[in-house]
Structure formats: structure tokens, C-alpha cells
Design brief:
Chains A, B: Belongs to the isocitrate and isopropylmalate dehydrogenases family. LeuB type 2 subfamily. Chains A, B: Its main location: cytoplasm. The structure is a homodimer. Chain A is built from 11 helices and 12 strands. Chain A has about 350 residues and is an alpha/beta fold. In chain A, helix 6 links the parallel strand 8 and strand 9. Helices cover about 40% and strands about 25% of the residues of chain A. Chain A has a 10-stranded mixed sheet, sandwiched between helices. A two-stranded antiparallel sheet of chain A has the order 6-7. The interface between A and B is large, with 62 and 62 residues. Strand 7 of chain A pairs antiparallel with strand 7 of chain B. Bound molecules: 3-isopropylmalic acid (2 copies). One 3-isopropylmalic acid sits at the interface of chains B and A.
Chain lengths: ~350, ~350
């Protein structure tokens, strides 16, 4: 009997449904070739759903989604400035709520400059690194508050919360990945200014590092890290960093590697207590939605990360090889979203 | 009688004294040409002073420095990892203490890609923007703390403090600069996640913006801003942002515009209650200290910002023109720190 996985699909808003359709095409093709099966349930979540029902993500949604093995998400978010969405905050209420509720403490974001992809950098070596971004702590926790809102005496605080428990588990995951790659780990933080959390991150990296003697450890302040990402991105193997720094660095990493049309990500709960979620780094791009203009490659590469996570490395490599082959054959002429999906399916074998 | 200014000099550590020496050469030359005078007092501050005396910055130092009209700082910080500096934190105790004590709420960081400077970007238009970074609030305040330090139950919090008072004054300054430039202001924040402080920044930008109808206002999340800095930096005129985002964006801006060897900055108290401080963005680079290898251009451009601040625009423009002329004549061959200083003096005319 075929191995079967329960897949929760969240196509979302804007270009989300278009890119997810292509990702599923590729997934179905590789699954049938590998003799595995995906039972899909689609969830209507995002700005469109909010406008229809007033709900962003209900407890029932969360329970239903949690009953799956993995999640594939397209993109969520309405038209910027839409007054009807003013109080929705789809990002916090949906995307971040999923990451936090499902304990996605490893936010995995690989960067590869594929042969044939035009990078904005004039020159770069062999770029192939992965950012392990903490996903459940730091400035993203939503702690803090406001007094005297709307007055000249307003004070707005944001609290970044960092725990040894939370830092240790993501650092351990990052070391394990470095050990399976090129044995190099770079901690990125701002320890000279954020000394409370910085000391914690440094201590944990030292402690966990002692159990991975084969991994060389390096440290960069976040400001300096942005410099190296444009002047010498080939130096990186695994970067481990906090939630906010990871957010910033991975958009920059996406840009130098040919645009976020190619950037895939995994929101991973390595313990397997909750389903992990895979999504392109790009947003819903409502301006080009429904026009078959979006590049589904990031969504398709997110499927590869999902297959990795399900311990189906052959299937994952098949997807990645097909993407690499397709990218290498690109000549700059425009193709529709589905034409790109079809080409990648054709390249699968 | 010549107009006279009291200048506090903090050469600092590493390459600091070398680059300050060249900045002073240029300052003296332009001052004598313009008929102005600078009375200099040198302050020995930094890692070297700490190792000698155990002091980082005393109250007496602060009082003495405050009695000056302006401050020029080279760079501070010892050899990374020097165990004797373990508990010093020169950055917080000296650089940030000066910025906070002297109420440097405008941290001004211009970026220009000068003709002839090799940028890591394959292509870019006319890049000339300025980042107005808030200098006295945000995650830099040092609020927060640790419980159960060193244990598996450690919790480390960092509090970003943002006030309407603090945001309003820097936003006002940024709008005034935009109005005197190309009438474009971009707020950079992360309002979708840091909603407490994000709402405050947005509100204040809306309110102050209403009094600058000629300035077009734009908003970018900090992650997206890093993308545009490498794909379309010419789009920016004035960026206004918080302390930490400004730190990150200006290092990236320095990198795309030819390296932090050229990046100048001003820590400005626009009210004139305290002396403003001008410094290259680069650090003390102890590895190349004393070898006449450092590029003093960033320090010299910081002198130009200082002259701007003292309302000596002719003198400032003279310095900038000399730097531009020198940069245009660079052919990539190595010159000593003092040879670059001499060449810029010679180009002053
Ligand atoms: C949409 C936003 C909340 C999100 C984040 O900040 O994490 C996005 O930028 C990302 O990187 O996935
Ligand atoms: C040295 C450090 C405290 C400082 C900062 O973070 O502000 C530096 O990076 C800068 O940008 O001037």
C-alpha cells in the first residue's frame, strides 16, 4: 500500500492560489512517480475569507489543520491599504498565529544562486547557505503595549522575549544541519547592543557547539552580516539567528539570489508534535494576481523542503533537480505561471 | 576676528587616530581657506584608555566634552575577543553613552555612489539618499533584563521603548531634510509585526507629513527595504527609521556604495543643547591599525557633515568636492592613509 500523507492546503490570497496550483501539479507528479500519496484538504484562509466571514483563524481551523501531517501555504494578505482590512492584521492573526500555535521554532530558509539566474551582484562565488531563523520568540511575540495612545505623551514598548529553552532547540537544529552540510555555523545577532538576549544566544551557541566539535563557529553582528551578504555571500553555510534578524536577512538573501520569486521556506516543528508548514517567502502580490504572471518556483521549491521534512529525500531531490534544469533553460522570455509549472513537471523524471 | 569653534577630538582605537589625523589635515586646510578656526581638545577614550585606567567614560569626561561645539570621533573598540575587555562593552559604555547623554536623536547617514567607485551591484542608477536614524530610543535603550541567568530556565528580555516625543522630533527633522532635497520620504519599520511601535511611527509620520504637503511619503517593511537597497537603491531620497533598523540599513547602504571606507555619519542634536558628534561608520579595525592602510575618506566626509551642521555650507561643499575629485582619480592602486589625506587636501583648491 502506498505511503499516505495528509496535506493541509492554504492557497490564500492574491497569487497564492496560482502558485499553489503549480506546486500541487509538481507534487502530484513526483508522488505518483515515487509511489506515495497526498490526501489534500483545502482551507480558505486569508484576506478574502476575512472579508467574507470576519474570521482570520478560528480555533476550529487550528484543530482541523493540526490533524494533518504537513501544510502548504501560498501567500496571505489583501490589497495594501484596503480600509476593510484595517483591523485585520492578517500577518499577525494568521501567518504568525500558525507559526506560534504550531510551535514552528525552526524557520528554514535556504539560499542558492542557481546557474543561469541573474543576481543583482556584479560577482559572487558559489552561494549555497541556509538561514535557520528562530520562529517562536524574540521581538515577534507580540508582548509590549502602549500607554497614552494617540497623544503627544504616547509610549509604545515592544518586548523581545528570549528563553534558553527556545534558543537552545533552534541552535541545536542549526548545528545538526551544519554538521550535515559544510560544517560551518555563523551566529548573527547584535550582542554589543542587545546584551541581555545577546549573551544568552552566545552562551547557548558555545554550549551546544561543544557537542559539535566538527562545526566551525563564527559570529557576526547583524549589520555586518548584511555587508557580507552583498560582498561575500559564498562565505556562509548555516546562519542561525533570531526571529527579526532572520526576517531581514532572508529577504536580503532572496534578493541577492535572484529575487524572492525563487525563495522557499519551511516553518518546521522538528519534534513532530504539530504539522510543519511550507511556503514561498514572497507575499500575495495582489497587483499581479490572477494574471498568470507569478513565478511558482518558490512554491515548488517549498514542496521540495516539505518532502525533505517528510524524509523523502529522493522525491525532494527530484523536484530540486527539475527546478535547476528549468532555471538553467530560462532565456528571459516571459512564461505564464502554469507554463513554468508544466516545464518543471516535464523536467521531473 | 575669525569665527572660532571648539572641537572635541576623540581619535579612539585602532585605525581611529590615523583617519582622524587626515580628517584634521583637511579641516585645517579648509578652515584657513575659509577664515574660520577650530580650537581642538583631544580626549583619550576607548579600549586603550580602559586598559590603562579602567574607565570607559567618566562624568568628568562628559562634562568636559559637553563644553565643546562639536565632536569628531575616529573609531573605538579593542581587539575582538581580548579577554581584558570582556566586561568593558566599549560600544555601550562609550559610543552609545555619548549618543544618549548628548541627546543625539538624529543619526544622519548619507549614501552616495560616487562616480568611479566600484559597487558590488551589477547595475544601479543615480544613488543619493540619506538615512535619518533615530538615535536615542528603540531597542538601543538598554531596558530589559535577565532572570535565571546561565541556567536552562534563563529568560532574557529586551524592551524597545518608543515615545511620541522621540519619534516626532526625528520624523520632523527627516521631513525637513526631504523638503530640502527631492521631496521624498520613506518610512521603514515592521508595522505588521511590531504593531505597538509601528502604529506610533505611522501615526507620527502621517501627522508631521500633513505639514509637509510637498513631500511624498512611502512606507516599506524593513525586510522589503533591504531588497530595494540592492535592486533599486536609486529610488530612495530620505529614509526615516528606528535605531536598530537604521543600524542595519546603513551598513547595507555602505556596502552597496563601495564599502564602509566611504560611509560618514553625524550624531546630531539639532536643538544645539549638546554638541553633535561626527564619525565614520566603520569600526576600529585593529587588524590593520598603525599600518597606514585605512581609507580616511569616511572620516573626511564626516568633517563635511560637521561643517554642514555648523552652517558652513561652502566649507562643507569644498570638502565634498575634493573627495569626489579624489575618488574619481583613483585607479585602484594602493595609497597610504596619509597619501589619501594629502591628495584630498591638494584637491581642495
Ligand atoms: C508577513 C510577515 C509577518 C512575515 C514575517 O515577518 O515573518 C514575512 O515577512 C516572512 O518573512 O515570512
Ligand atoms: C558599535 C555599535 C554600537 C554601533 C551601533 O550599533 O549603533 C555601530 O554599529 C554603528 O552603526 O554606529
Amino acid at each position: 500500500m502506498a505511503q499516505t500523507f495528509k496535506l493541509a492546503l492554504i492557497p490564500g490570497d492574491g497569487i497564492g492560489p496560482e502558485v499553489v496550483a503549480e506546486a500541487i501539479k509538481v507534487l502530484d507528479a513526483v508522488a505518483s512517480a515515487e509511489g506515495i500519496e497526498f490526501e489534500k484538504t483545502e482551507f480558505q484562509l486569508g484576506a478574502a475569507r476575512f472579508l467574507e466571514t470576519g474570521d482570520v483563524l478560528t480555533d476550529e481551523d487550528l484543530v482541523a489543520i493540526s490533524a494533518h501531517d504537513v501544510i502548504l501555504l501560498g501567500a496571505v494578505g489583501g490589497v495594501p491599504g484596503d480600509p476593510r482590512l484595517k483591523n485585520a492584521n492578517i500577518e499577525r492573526g494568521l501567518l504568525l498565529k500558525l507559526r506560534f500555535s504550531l510551535d514552528h521554532y525552526v524557520n528554514l530558509r535556504p539560499t542558492v544562486i542557481y546557474p543561469g539566474v541573474p543576481s543583482p551582484l556584479a560577482s559572487h562565488g558559489d552561494v549555497d547557505f541556509v538561514v535557520v531563523r528562530e520562529g517562536t520568540e524574540g521581538p515577534y511575540v507580540g508582548n509590549g503595549g502602549v500607554i497614552r495612545a494617540g497623544t503627544p505623551q504616547e509610549v509604545a514598548n515592544e518586548v523581545s522575549v528570549n528563553t534558553a529553552y527556545g534558543v537552545e532547540r533552534v541552535v541545536r537544529d542549526a548545528f545538526a544541519r551544519a554538521s550535515a552540510r559544510r560544517n560551518k555555523l555563523t551566529l548573527v545577532h547584535k550582542t554589543n547592543v542587545l546584551t541581555f538576549s545577546g549573551n544568552l544566544w552566545k552562551r547557548i551557541v558555545d554550549e551546544v557547539g561543544a557537542t559539535f566539535p566538527e562545526v566551525a563557529v563564527d559570529y557576526l553582528h547583524v549589520d555586518a552580516a548584511t555587508i557580507f551578504l552583498v560582498t561575500d555571500p559564498a562565505r556562509f553555510d548555516v546562519i542561525v539567528t533570531d526571529n527579526l534578524f532572520g526576517d531581514i536577512l532572508t529577504d536580503l538573501a532572496g534578493a541577492i539570489s535572484g529575487g524572492i520569486g525563487l525563495a522557499a521556506s519551511g516553518n518546521i516543528n522538528p519534534d513532530g508534535t504539530y504539522p510543519s508548514m511550507f511556503e514561498p517567502v514572497h507575499g500575495s502580490a495582489p497587483d499581479i494576481a490572477g494574471q498568470q504572471k507569478a513565478d511558482p518556483t518558490a512554491a515548488i521549491l517549498s514542496v521540495a523542503l516539505m518532502l525533505d521534512h517528510l524524509r523523502l529525500p529522493d522525491a525532494a531531490d527530484r523536484v530540486r533537480s527539475a527546478v535547476v534544469a528549468d532555471i538553467a533553460s530560462r532565456d528571459g522570455s516571459a512564461r505564464s505561471t502554469s507554463a513554468i509549472g508544466d516545464a518543471i513537471v516535464a523536467a521531473l523524471s
